[in-house]
Amino acid sequence: MVVKQNDLRIGKITLSQYQEKKPPTQQQQTHDNIVLATEMIEEEGSPRFDSKWFSIAMSNAATFDQVKKLFQIAHDAKLVNSFVISSYLHSLSSKKAPGEALSEWKRLESEGFSIDDDIRSGLISAHARNRDMESALNLLGETKKVSMRAHKNIITSYFDKGEMIKGFEYAKSLEQLGALSVPIYGAIIRGYRMSGNVQKAQETFDSIKTKGIRPDMVCHQELIIAYGHAGRDIAEMMRRLQMMKDDGFQPDHVVYNQMMKFMIDSKEYENAVMIMDMMSREKVTPIDPRHVGTLATYYAKKEMARVQKGKLFFLLDSAKRGGVDVKQFEYLTTPHYGFMADEYYFRHHPSFGYPDMYRRPYQNRSVVE
């Protein structure tokens, strides 16, 4: 099988194969890479792939067996280094095979491969992200120098599992060791946000600045969302958003979409449209189309009542500039739109995730197209 080097793609099949059939699934892509690498090794005696290729291919692998096959090919070709080992163990952990990752770790050590603290910390992080806290803590005891990222993932995993006390106790132990860092503070603010304790979240944020440490983007975002959860304090959210920008951070789509949700829930539609327009002007994507649908339906009703004239078109224009396919909402701009708009919307756009309770009243009615 003759393939030019520039025709190879990481995580994808070759260009010639792509042109011959429909775009493949991730599993098909990785399978083709394995077949391609194997054939080139068999034909030429050594692959034209380097260690980095195998590392990325394992990260993109769709199944546990594909990860092991790719590592075996790299091993046979003597391309295994710390980067490949790290990707291999992380990939096994991400495929929810913590026991396999641990046994492979021991096997590679027995074969003379070096498993340094960076690899160990990465594996701790992978187990923590999978909420396998038992394995993460066991690895923690065997690692001399643990990265701040691993500590942060352990704290975050405790919070995500609802074990708030354990998360805060772990953070407290780091504080006693003088090992707190900005990512750890961000995880702590997240914990207070999830607990609904906006005051403690604010105090933690303020303590960072008091110590002369510059909060990162995550600290700002978690605090903004905390104010949204705690009583939908729109004015404070907007003030915090401006502070975030003043500190040199560009808000991402997560915080903007969360703010829009809080504003819609509080019936602050004008502010929600303002946030959407802000996203489109700052080229922050994606805009959540569910918010577009809710706002478009609201303003279409106001338009029919001759109130807020032009708001609907401004909204759809902002959404379009923000990358949203607004064709699904064009029916709201037609003269036929009236009280049947909700019926059309809920009957024809069930994928937007609205509960069935909103659709049932319209099941037996005709729809104005």
Would you mind describing this structure in some detail?
By secondary structure, the chain is mainly α. The protein has helices spanning 15-20, 26-44, 51-60, 64-76, 82-94, 98-110, 117-129, 133-141, 148-160, 164-176, 182-195, 198-210, 217-229, 234-246, 253-265, 269-281, 289-304, 311-321, 341-348. It is built from 19 helices and no strands. Helix 5 (82-94) runs parallel beside helix 7 (117-129). It is flat.
Summarize the structure.
The protein is mainly α.
Largest sheet: none
Cα distance spanning the termini: 55 Å
User: What is the N-to-C order of secondary-structure elements (H for helix, E for strand)?
Assistant: HHHHHHHHHHHHHHHHHHH
- Overall pLDDT score: 75
Q: Helix amount, in percent?
A: 55-70%
Rg from C-alpha positions?
A: 26 Å
Query: What's the total count of β strands?
Result: 0
How many individual helices? 19
**Oligomeric form:** single chain
β-strand amount: under 5%
Helix and strand content put the structural class at mainly alpha
| Outline | flat
Identify low-pLDDT runs.
1-19, 338-369
